Here is the input.
Amino acid sequence: MSVEWRSPSQLKELVKQDRPVKVLVMGMPRSGTMSLVAALKKLGYTPYDFIDRVLLGHLSLWTDALRAKFLGQGKPWGKTELDRVLKGFDCVLDSPCPFFTEEFLSAYPASLVILNKRDPDAWLASMNSTLFHVFRWPSWPLLAKLDPGFVGSWYTHCRLTWEIFCGNDYSEICKEKYLEHADYIRRVTPKDRLLEYEIKEGWEPLCRFLGKEVPEGEDFPNVNDKRVVVENHTKLWAYGVFNAVKNISIGLVSAGVGVAAWWWYRAR
Here is the structure.
């Protein structure tokens, strides 16, 4: 099973609507996040997921937010900035949003928080076979320079996200940071608004916490297996290569026109 991505035209219409933010899913990626996206959609929510940030061109905005909070560069985000990127959505998931739990709780004090989690060793193994595996592809730095608008924005954002989280060290240190993040969520979230949850628990505790009926005859979604994650990033890489070739071609044509104009000027 996979999650159906919204098209750019669907997103364009969606962000015209106003929805109060109701649910904050503040666990890290590869902790059942995509299964929760599908489940929350089934329950009637409109999640703001990583792919939405990509398609809406929000990654650079979140990169600025990370720099402001963790590097002291720029204005820290508050409700005004969060309202701007969350317009049309009532549920928030995936990195780097969990790093801003305090800001979300301040901006949306009635929201409920889900700490989606899994065994730390299993989480690190999953990350190293999916996202961290993709980040190690050696062509990203060059491709980011040749396609700054798309791949460059994504690569800069991801590198900064994981630099802040674990110093881009994908070993035991990363697992320790995973556990520290869970403690951070527990520390800043009122207990009566927090659900610690693993997707293997299914519908019942999730629906009880959200005040929703359990979908009748519906198995809990199980999506985003390792193969799909790598395949999706391969598509991203291929799109970046296409953009890079296009940018190089435009540059060569422009250079050719410039040379021709110079020779014409000299010969006239």
Notes: Confidence is low (pLDDT under 50) at residues 251-268.
